[in-house]
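REQUEST FORM: STRUCTURE PREDICTION
Request ID: SP-0412
Submitted by: Lab K.M.
Chain count: 1
Length (residues): 246
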Amino acid sequence: LLMADKIIAVSNLTKQLIVNRYRIPASKIDVLHNAIDVEAMQGHSYDNETYRYLERLKDRGYTVVSVVTRFTMQKGLEQFVRAAARASERYDKLVFLMAGDGEQRDELLRLGAELGISDKLYFTGFVRGQQWRDAFSVSDIFVMSSVSEPFGLTALEAAHHDNAVILTYQSGVSEVLTNVFRYDFWDIDALADRLVAIALSDALKQTLKENAAQEYTKITWQDIAERCMQMYRHLKVGQAMRGIAP
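STATUS: Completed
RESULT:
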């Protein structure tokens, strides 16, 4: 970081961490947010047999809440499960799709049992390909519960798959998606409130989905690539003026 002429951070959150923890001048750091390839994702069709059980619950009026992530401490999943229990006390027709795997899996299974919501937690194990895409498609509400997330690309992917999105304030992607609900990762009551509010209001859910869709489509990899090229060209000119060989 000290040797670099320029540093690219994927969010202002990451930039601030670099400044605070490594004492790097903010002027050396440019923020270039991530994007998703919308065209590449449009070629995949949803298989409603992948999560057939959840589809049957949706037919009975249930709302599917998903996390699609690694099961590690960084992702705030213990707090998510506790919030799921709180929300379920107030509104019974919620089910939670836990898509992913990691060292916390058994701990989360035990926690769900202790809180009495084992029947509401649907663990898929590691997913990729069709199962991964279908996890977003079957979901109504996507939660990024991270304790710290430099960006959080899955939130954009969830928005693309017509999810209402809830993010922690500690997630960099919240700088790109503003038509979402936010909360502090430790505040399980706030997350429970937001889950119930969205589940009980079709109008709110639809508004969040539509407005988020207008936001994520404004950022493309083509735009990000062009900004990278502009930065490289600017650095090259600066080096030439200082007599440094490129």
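NOTES: The CA atoms of residues 74 and 147 lie 5 Å apart.
Reviewed by: T.R.
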